[in-house]
Amino acid sequence: MIRLTQIKLPLDHDEMAIESKVLKTLKIAKGDLLNVSVFKRGYDARKKTNISLIYTLDVDTRCNEQLLERFAKDNNVRATPDMSYKFVGHATEVPAKRPIVIGTGPCGMFVGLILAQMGLAPIILERGKAVRERTKDTWGLWRKRELNSESNVQFGEGGAGTFSDGKLYSQIKDSNHHGRKVLHEFVNFGAPEEILYVSKPHIGTFKLVKMVENMRHKITELGGEVRFSQRVDEVLIDDGQVQGVVLQDGSRLESEHVVFAIGHSARDTFTMLRDKGVYIEAKPFSIGFRVEHPQSMIDDCRFGPNAGNEILGAADYKLVHHCQNGRSVYSFCMCPGGTVVAATSEEGQVVTNGMSQYSRNERNANAAIVVGIEPSDFPSGDVLAGIDLQRELEQRAYQLGGGDYTAPAQLVGDFLAGTPSREFGEVQPSYKPGIKLTDLEPSLPEYAIEALREAIPAFDKKIKGYARYDAILTGVETRTSSPVRLKRDESYQSINTRGLFPAGEGAGYAGGILSAAVDGLKVGEAVARSMLGIAIED
Ligand code: FAD
């Protein structure tokens, strides 16, 4: 097969245009073309009035070899790479000491799946509840201001990405095509087929819930186990080697292979790991607000007369500004046609995030706009000082909102002018359980406020209306990535604790659903290599 890249066609091209373009590009007769399939479809919207679709195509012809030779100097004509997944091995029997995976986020689920597929019968432990019960608890905070600190947006089956926009793209290097395996598995578990070929796939919350359940059933069917409401409170380490874990009810599970795929909000578990002497270091993350604009404004700005086109969908954006005070401000986790959600996992705190449904048809676009911060900004030199800062800011936001999980918010115009907000304009906030208009200045450190005040007008130059008076800022966005890294070596084990495999976002090795899932596959392979005695590849 031949892979053609950078095949450009108009947005409104007809069905036959792809085939015609292939024949023209390869200079072959129709009779020589056997098959064409779309591997990827993106778009180029730099000219709003002339938006093109950009295809990557897999083509089969009667003369593949000759064509590859003829186009040897053309980087856009290459042999289709073998992207099929290769297991590192298979167990011949269920091991006496089964591997333990902590966490059922995308990372833990993919560690569990791959281990189960290799016959290693993992035991997966999750502090939160199964996804249907968890959904009720999560809505409990959004609707009734009742937080369940063990079952919420951060904790429970599916992990942090379950109530989300379900964006499935990442900029990680992926020479072994692990991302492809993840997308194929997602489709097997109920995701729409299009995630395999659109350049920025997303799933949305409702579909994610069903997929997560299907994935669990598969793991169980393959001999794995998924146990809910089983928080790991202690890791047992003897002479630098993991021996097992202690659960919240005091029971013990023995294993010499324990994966910590605990996400970035398991603050108590990070504390336990530090106290047990597992190597942890502080790492940079970002803080800021969620901003909401009308989605129609973003669509008009990005797509002009093509706004509303079905192929393009609701427009997204990505912005960055380097400030005079040395800070960088950037947009993050943009949710087209979505809502802002309450995302705390601890009582007395307010944290924002965003989600959407597959249709992305809510009236507002939302995104985090955040300022990068370094360990030198943290209140102390402790490895967990980033968590102390997060807690402090989240508690401040809770107080500013009035102390009942209402989030503090301000209109962009007032924020830029430094005056408290009193009433909404055209943009209505989507955050549940509700917002209180106020002055957001006390909610973040001075340098962050200064950077945001410089960045928003700069963003307005890229997206007209970004700094509009009535756009809404809701505070605070603090759980952008893990504030710690659980450093690991080339065998994916902690650098000072054998058998402890830090994984995913919480360990500081992923950010986002796809990259966490890919990291899960890599860690699962590493566990299998260790258990099956397979050497690490170069
Ligand atoms: P997590 O998903 O955080 O999973 C960790 C799991 O471990 C949790 O279920 C937790 O309960 C469990 N756990 C923690 N401690 C223990 C313990 N001691 N014992 C037992 N279990 C434990 N990313 C995207 O790519 N696209 C998006 O659209 C997107 N939207 C998001 C929207 C929201 C509201 C949120 C909160 C996040 C969003 N993200 C998105 C980020 C994404 O969800 C995370 O990057 C991803 O979930 C990280 O995966 P993970 O498996 O490493 O950790």
Automatic annotation (TrEMBL):
The name this protein goes by in its record: FAD-dependent protein C-terminal domain-containing protein
Location of the FAD-dependent protein C-terminal domain: 284-480
Annotated InterPro entries: FAD-binding_protein (IPR028348), FAD-depend_C (IPR049516), FAD/NAD-bd_sf (IPR036188)
